[in-house]
Amino acid sequence: PRTPYRHADPSRHLPAGRREFFFALLSLTRSAVDLGFVNRPLFAGLLWAGLTFRLQPALSAGIFFELLWLDLFPAGTFIPPQTLLSLTASLSILACLPGADMRTTALVLVATLPLAYLGAWAEQRYRKRQNLSYNALIVWNRRGGTQTYAPQRLIVRALLEIFALNLALFVIASSLALA
To answer: Are 69 and 119 in contact (CB under 8 A)?
Structure first.
């Protein structure tokens, strides 16, 4: 027999607008602040469980994605998969399925795996586009420092752009997954 999780209370889910913000804020740890443990699926799963007061399926999904990509770490030009995108997308889908059993949960986890590589691809495209900001910084340095291309403005703009990119990526991914 199928045994559903004990979380049929929909009032304990993160509201739709906060899920996107949750992912976009945590994904900033990939580029803004190097807090490696925050960018790990296990920590994000525990944080999600703490915010929703539901240990399952957040902890199970966090452990699954943590163990799946345990040996992948950013070294050199390698951009690791966007594990938080897969995790938050799967937890958002599972929030819409309060009676999901383990087979459904496993299917959702496997189905959201390609989103991690989609996120890495989008990040790679963004990094290539950021070469223009690097060129602007070099020009700023050669001119002797005009305020138009001040380094702090470039950094703030880059962080806001990556935040908006991750927010839009999650909205698109979740709307496709839930459609």
So the answer is: no
DSSP 70-84: TT----TT-----HH
Q: What's at 128, amino acid-wise?
A: K
CB count in 10 Å sphere of residue 157: 12
Identify the burial level of 24 via C-beta atoms within 10 angstroms of its C-beta, where 0-12 means exposed, 13-18 middle and 19 or more buried.
Answer: buried
pLDDT, position 9 = 45
145 torsion bin: left (phi>0), alpha (psi -120 to 50), beta (else):
left
The answer, yes or no, to whether residue 106 has pLDDT greater than 80, is: yes
State pTM to two decimals: 0.75
| Contact in structure between 57 and 150 (CB atoms under 8 Å) | no
